Amino acid sequence: MSISENFMLGAGAVIIQPSSGKVVIVQDGLSWFLPKGRKDLGESIEQAALREAYEEVSFPLHWLHLSRSHFKP
């Protein structure tokens, strides 16, 4: 078995509530996390992020334009 057979893409989102500027996080028991999940076959990363976020927080979302991108952790 190679690594590529087990490789799955994930997608997540940082949700900012426009009226307050607060970041929305999800609570599951004692854990807190940003909405995320696995990308479905045939779905783009962007579609997966929106779907997963909607499934976990139950309110409609839309993209904000990224003002700056980087590739460093």
Description:
By secondary structure, the protein is an alpha+beta fold. It has one helix and six strands, in the order E-E-E-E-E-E-H. The chain has one helix at residues 45-57, and strands spanning 10-12, 15-16, 23-24, 26-28, 31-33, 36-38. The strands form three sheets. A two-stranded antiparallel ribbon has the order 1-6. A two-stranded antiparallel ribbon has the order 2-3. Strand 4 (26-28) and strand 5 (31-33) form a beta hairpin. The longest helix is centred in the C-terminal third of the chain and has 13 residues, at 45-57. It is globular. The mean pLDDT is 82.
Give the overall average pLDDT: 82
DSSP strand (E) fraction? Answer: 15-25%
Summarize the main sheet: 2 strands, antiparallel
Distance between the termini: 29 Å
Element-level helix/strand string: EEEEEEH
Brief account:
The protein is α+β, with helices and mostly antiparallel strands and 73 residues long.
Key terms:
globular, alpha+beta, two-stranded antiparallel sheet, 73 residues, 1 helix
Topology (elements, then pairings):
Layout lengths: L9 E3 L2 E2 L6 E2 L1 E3 L2 E3 L2 E3 L6 H13 L16
Antiparallel strand pairs: 1-6, 2-3, 4-5
